[in-house]
Write the structure tokens for this entry.
Amino acid sequence: MTNNSFDLAVIGSGPGGYVAAIRAAQLGLNTAIIEKDKFLGGTCLNVGCIPSKALLHSTKIFHLVNHEISSHGIKTVGVSMDIATLMQKKTSIVDTLRRGVEALVKKRKISIFKGHGKLLGNNKIEVKGENNSEEIVARSIILATGSKVAELPFLKCDGEHIVSSTDAIAFDSPPEKLIVIGGGAIGLELGSVWSRLGSEVSILESLPRIGATYDPDITQLAERIFKKQGMKIETEAKVTGVKIDGDHSIVSVDKKGKTMELMANKVLLSVGRVPYTDKLGLEELGVRKNDSGHIITDESYRTNVDGVYAIGDTIEGPMLAHKAEEEGIAAAEIIAGKTAHVNYKTIPNVIYTEPEIASVGISEEEAKEQKLDTCIGKFPLTANGRAIASGTTDGMVKVIADSTTDRLLGVQVISHNASELIAAAVVHMEYSGSAEDMARTVTAHPTLSESLKEAAMAVNKTSIHSF
Ligand code: NAI
């Protein structure tokens, strides 16, 4: 075997790619990673999940100090935010994790090739660096090249007036007026960050509700809470055009048939993401994609081309780091000759606002669409002792169970730390648990987790702490 010959080459080093490579190396495969960017870690680590969570954490502290701390008897004077330090902190968090991922990969003796990977056929990949180009050969290839920002037919990001999430995690000052197009995870998270830092934030969502994958009772509560925090939210408000006028933009919005015009200093385009497979050589090789640009695979992540696999945002399914990781592990195990699968029914989803919104399984609406008979249990955080003690009573838990079998179909949570609470629901669902299993699981008191148990009890009308 020459130095450029591998059992497996993974193109892309995001959470799907680097995790696949590590698992493959653990299983004894001689593995390479090809990455076009300077750092490993992909969108999630470099410009997505991690930097946004760093900013959300810092700005949450700022918001608490400004708005809530005095009720604890803590007196502050002259509180201000130094944006440069905030951004440095975010960068140092990202740097720490970059070093961590690189160390994990190198420790497993995975070869790293820096450059743009392109399939050449016959198991060959061209890696084009800034100044050189080389070829590697791999028995199996995993495509883990992720996704890019979706744009609108009439609106492209220019990095200045019309920005993407990558720009909006690095503003050097809060824009006076920030218009966010799209009330999904990115819009709500980055809208929260800049609203806490003083921007007047307006979220424009074309659907009747923000966070549309959650049930209306959850999103209506979220909308009320976010409006109370200061964000403006317009639903059924479809952006139809943007005109740039000097240093600001005029955004045209169709709100239930009426046209409004809004002024913004910055416009954040967060209307989704699309698979990123540019210049990968898919067309030349005949790798099949569907109409939305996702690579088509079978349940073992095999494309129609022998030896070529695809995972993560490049294929169908929620564009989530943890979904990509699970697929990376499964694909590596399959390539190494094992059996593996991902349980798509138990992939949690989180929006990291305050309170956070999290779910697993199907919503009540989806259950109705599937003509399933359900029993619903709800519990408000206002009735949870820990929430009252810690001033985090905004929220509720909703449990959706099958009315015949009592089996859990889904759980939705809007609460402080919902991203952590949802893990218990995921475990119950992973083991095909029932609402009664969840209701009879002992939960430490006082904790926010008790509200999961109480919502499960409410399915069978046995909640102790609510009516
Ligand atoms: P999204 O698909 O979650 O939300 C986009 C929203 O934009 C939708 O509600 C859509 O109805 C709305 N929209 C589309 N066109 C519009 C128009 N012309 N006017 C007004 N509204 C319009 O997309 P988002 O937030 O950009 O996120 C992209 C991907 O990244 C998603 O798959 C998301 O799950 C993932 N992501 C996940 C995060 C998390 O897990 N916390 C954080 C950030 C991103």
Q: What stands out?
A: The chain is about 30% helix and 25% strand. The CA atoms of residues 19 and 291 lie 28 Å apart. The longest strand covers residues 133-143. The first helix runs from residue 15 to 26.
